[in-house]
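for the writeup, i need someone to sanity check this before i put it in the appendix. the sequnce is what the collaborator sent (i think, or maybe the updated version? ugh). structure was predicted straight from it, no edits. if anything looks off just tell me and ill rerun, i have time this weekend
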Amino acid sequence: MLTASFRFYEELNDFLPKERRKVDFIYSFDRKASIKDCIESMGVPHTEIDLILVNGISVDFSYILTDQDQVSVYPVFELLDITEVTRLRPKPLRDPKFVVDVNLGRLARYLRLIGFDTLYRNDFDDKDLVRISSQQGRILLTRDRNLLKHSVITHGCFVYSTKPLKQIEEVIQRLDLTGTAVPFKRCIRCNGMLQPVEKREIEERLPPLTRKYYEVFWMCGSCEQVYWKGAHYGRMMELVEGLLEC
């Protein structure tokens, strides 16, 4: 029987049983296996990892674990540039776009609200999510850790919280989205881009009081939903400002 010593850092410990959290522990194996397979057999999705050091040297997921290896595993470092160190991904996430699992619909709406390209449909199945993430280079957001273990997914995040407002705060902080957020540029219903539209072009679609009191409008280029700065706008601004200051 071969053995290696493992240590996981920061939030990666949340995927481990209590006795393996924040400590060095011995992992036993009896066959050749990639370090990716070993790590995922412990319950940690590869998409949550940005740096693996074996005996102090950075390795990629294809590294074959050997007897007596000393392994340190670190989470995604979106706030730091570790391009010269990590061997796991060709480039960091600096222009993020998302595909969101079916049980995270409110999170998808919040991401669109602050301006991020976010695909969501309540009939996406696991195959759809994996295909879209891998083919379009989208970050997969899910609470299903097994979904993140698909080898073709290079970028994904396990969403820890079950509450939508906490979920969007978590994603903003983990992926450092504050500096690239551009609120109110996307349709929260369909993800289309919003464009200014003349009142006369959509006037017949407006409620009577809106038609009377408002002059500036935007329309989604995809689903043609019309938007204006109504009574709800102040509350939405407070929400957005709160999220981007978190």
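The chain has a mean pLDDT of 91. The first helix runs from residue 35 to 41.
thx in advance!!
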